[in-house]
Structures are given as structure tokens and as C-alpha cells.
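Posting here for the record, re: beta-D-fructofuranose.
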Amino acid sequence: MRSKRLKKARDFESKYLPYTKSEQPVFHVTGGIGWINDPNGFAPYKGEYHLFFQYYPYDTKWGPMHWGHVKTRDFIRWDRLPAAMAPDMDYDKDGCFSGSSVELPDGRQLLMYTGVRNVRRRNGKIEYFQTQCLAVGDGTDYEKLAANPVIDASYLPEGASAHDFRDPKIWREGDRFYAVIANRCDDGSGTILLFESEDAFHWKYVSLLAACHNQYGRMWECPDLIRLDGKDVLLISTQEMNAVGLEFHPGNANFCLIGEVDRKAQHLIRESAQAIDYGLDFYAPQTLLTEDGRRVMIAWMQNWETSICKNEELRFFGQMTLPRELSLRNGRLCQNPVRELDGYRGVRIDYRNVLINGETTLQGINGRCLDMTVTIRPGNENSMYKWFRLNVAKDGEHFTFIRYKPETGTIKVDRTHSGFPHDIVNIREFHVNAPDKELKLRIVMDRYSLELFVNDGEQAASFVLYTPQQAEAISFSADGNALIDVEKYELVVH
Ligand code: FRU
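Prediction output follows.
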């Protein structure tokens, strides 16, 4: 059924999307027009990968949530599809919040999402209710179920919240379906609940998979439970994180718990916790399993706290990260750009053993849409350089820098001069390893973003940049002698 609200969104898209083409990043997903936040329903369907997202087409700020829709075969080139859902039913009238999708055995695509309904009380206060709802479709058009909501507060264990109950992530395992859903318990902090179904339509509560107990932030959102290289990994986005060293930054943050799910108690036994992405802009990651067995993650490349800071010239707000392949190495979550990106590498420029002392530019090393790896070693055997610095998106006025200090073993990324006319946090610092004093930085840039992958994915850090596109110089500098290799490809996507 195409409701009035959905038709309005689709008509709006047809009318205005064509005007926004020239503003878009080359290979990162945006809504094309309007606002986006979390990736939703990232999953294979009929040989393609579908991605939906939290979407408000009419303005570059958050509004009643629709689901926007794109699909791809290779995670780099995306086709835009019409908006998939609008908040048009009583149970989701105030938003179709985040959720996920799965291909049903009968070939239909199932969307599972959170319906939000606000109720104004006599005293004027608004109380919100969140329930889990379903829609089925053919990959373009979806019909919400007459039986919605399929999981409401009556399914919840004692002490669970009927208000904060959102972001179902569904998956199929053997002949059953499971979903992890975020909730809040009576200590005020987040929990992740596990549900189970035989047909994906009738659900029952299984267990409390994990609880925050006011450690690692407060309300947890957007869970995803995955099996990765012999461990269970629970990806979580959290509100109200308190900073912990350089591992967790305050506010809306992301992290994962790595361990084993006790199959009897259906509870995650934690072994470790770590940040997923160390940059300024990363939230609400979601994963899928490719046909060839890779676990690929995508996230909203944005931070809620800075989401009022925009480039007013653009008619879209919010981008997704580059999809990344996940793995576990030495007990840590690692991530690298999907290998499909290699297929879009154009002209290659290569330098070996360049001695850097002071500031240097290298012929042919520049650009804003590129894939560049810089390997840094000490220039003298027995004296270490004090710092090494890479400036990108640079002109007379602008620059974004990545600085490595061997003494503290830290990387600092600073985008103070990257086009934001706002007084916001523009710096992140984090610890890295440099085995044998060698550090490897892979930088992927796409017009309005910079994604950094350290030591073959040991760490990733994502940043939105609004630097004018003509600022495309790159320079290398060091205090002391650093020896570097540079391999740079321009990225060409038609
Ligand atoms: C996370 C989130 C989700 C919610 C959605 C609403 O970014 O707050 O918990 O479903 O955004 O747009």
C-alpha cells in the first residue's frame, strides 16, 4: 500500500533529487536529499546488497523518520530506490526508527523496525512508546503487517522499558530467526534483549544477552551480534559515554564487546571491550554476511553531537562510512575497506624511501578522492623522529592533519581547519602500535570525508570534512628524520 505520506516522500524525491547529483560524494552513500542517520536493513536480497537508512527527505535536519533505500552489488556503486517506508500508521506515526532486514524462505524481503508513537499526557508532557513492527516486500515496495506491532511491551521481562525499546537486528540461523533489540532496565541504563521466532512473524523473548549497568555509557542503541573468527562480538552504540583514556570518547560513542555467548543461558560472557572506530564521526554500525562469507560493516559517518553543524550549501546531510570487512586479530576487532574498492583504483603513484625532514610535497600526490598508503620508518637507526605529520585537504587556508608521535605511541587527527564554521570538538587522539618502529596508514578520501586505517585495519577512524574541494594538496613533515613509502591511487567511479 502506498500511503499519502509515502507518496509525498517519493514525489518529493522525483522532483528534487536530480538537482543534487553534482553535490554528492563519489562512492559514499547519502540520502541524496534531506537528512539521514543510522544504516538500516543492511542485508543481501536476491543477489544484491540492500541498504535502508533513517531518513527525513524534506530538510537537512532530523524529522519524522522514513526509511530511505539504496542497493549495490559491490558496496561502491549504489543505485537509489524510492523511499521504502513513511511513518503512516498509528503505531509508527512519530517515526519508523531503526531496524534490519532479511530474505524470507518464500523470497520476500522482510523489514523489522521500531514504530514510535508519542502520546501527550494531561500535564502536557510527551510520553513515547516504541514497539517492533514488520513490513514485507519485493525489494522496492513494502506492505506493513496488519498484525503490527509484533513485539510490544507485553513481551518484555519485568523491569524492562516500554519507552526505550528499539533497533531490532534480525538474522536467520538454520530454520530459526533471531533478533537483538535495545532496551533500558530499571537502573536506567541499557540492555540488549534476545528474541526468537520460527517464522519471523511470531516472536518470543529468550534472554537478557547483555546489560550496561552504567558501564560503557547509558542507553544502548543499535545492537548487532555477530560470529567472527571464533568469537561472538556484540556491536553497540551508546549514549552518555564517559571518557576512558583515549579508548572511549564522551557522549554518543561506539564500542564492541567480544566474548562467547553461553548457549544455555543465552548470555554474552565478555572477554574484552574496545572502541570500533576512533574518529569523530561514526555511529550505529550494522553488518551483513556476503555470499563469500565476509562480514561487512557500514555505519553512519556522523556524530549526533555535531549534527547541527552543516555545510549549508549541500542539500543532503549525513553520509555512511565506506563498507568495511571485519576480522579478529589478536583478540581485537579489525576492519579494512571492502576489497571491491581496489577495482576502482585509477592512476598509481609510488614513492619509496623518501627522507622527510621539515615539510615536503611529492609530485602527483594530491587529491580529494583517493586511496593512499603511507608507511613510516625512522630515518636514522638510532635516533627516532619526534613526530611525523601528514597534511591533507590543504590549501593556503585549510588543512586536516594526521600526526604520529612515537614517544607517546599516539595518532592525533585534527580537522580544526577543515571547513567547519562551528566551535566543536575537532580533534581525536588514540593509541597505535608500531611494531619494529614501522607504522602503516591507509587513507581513503571521498570529497567530504577521510577514513583512516592503521596497520592493516588494526584501528579505523572516520572524519567528515567540509573543506572546499579545491583544497587538495598533501604534504609530509617530520621533526627529525622519517623515511616513508607512499602508494597513492586516485579513485575513479563512474
Ligand atoms: C540512533 C537512533 C536509534 C533510533 C534512531 C532514530 O542513532 O537514536 O536508536 O532508532 O536513531 O532516528
